[in-house]
Write a structure and sequence with these properties.
By secondary structure, the protein is mainly alpha-helical. Helix content is 42%, strand content 8%. Helix 4 packs parallel to helix 7.
């Protein structure tokens, strides 16, 4: 249901595998983490219900960036995709360097020598982790600023927005 709700809004994402054994390693790691957290007393956060101290959420970083940007983001591995993701997190108030400052460092000399000083620009995996952490922060401190898609029995994806658009261009 989560995937359907996001796809019908033009947010493209991967299919959840039907069997754990055939799933990619990173998906199996997620399932293992879920089971471990559950055994430690964590329960899924459900918007509008009294939440427990030990709550867990499922976050889909691509969808999170799409709702924050109000459009589908650039590809995350590209320079412009990384800058766009970091910029939206910077504008949300995260203590990150302004990625636009990296553009000031792109000079003729740097281009000709093949050295672009982009150290302040985070890698896409780091940005995915940051948007997940930001969403968890909102759940804990400003839960009215998140929305969930899906079905409580099947699973819910938590997104860092108060309302969803019908379509994300």
């Amino acid at each position: 249901m989560c995937e359907y709700e996001l796809r019908r809004r033009n947010i493209r994402l991967y299919n959840t595998p039907g069997k754990v054994k055939t799933a990619p390693g990173w998906v199996r790691t997620g399932f293992t983490l879920y089971k471990r957290l559950q055994s430690m007393g964590f329960n899924f956060f459900v918007a509008g219900e009294d939440s427990e101290q030990q709550a867990m959420i499922e976050v889909q970083p691509h969808a999170s960036f799409a709702v924050l940007l109000e459009r589908r983001p650039f590809l995350k591995r590209n320079l412009e995709g990384r800058m766009q993701r970091q910029l939206v997190l910077f504008l949300e108030g995260l203590a990150l360097p302004n990625p636009l400052h990296a553009l000031e460092e792109i000079t003729r000399h740097h281009l000709l020598t093949g050295h672009l000083p982009l150290d302040a620009l985070h890698e896409h995996d780091q940005l995915d982790a940051l948007v997940a952490a930001y969403t968890a922060y909102l759940v804990g401190v400003k839960s009215e600023r998140v929305i969930q898609v899906g079905d409580q029995e099947e699973g819910l994806i938590t997104l860092p927005t108060m309302r969803l658009k019908d379509f994300y261009p």
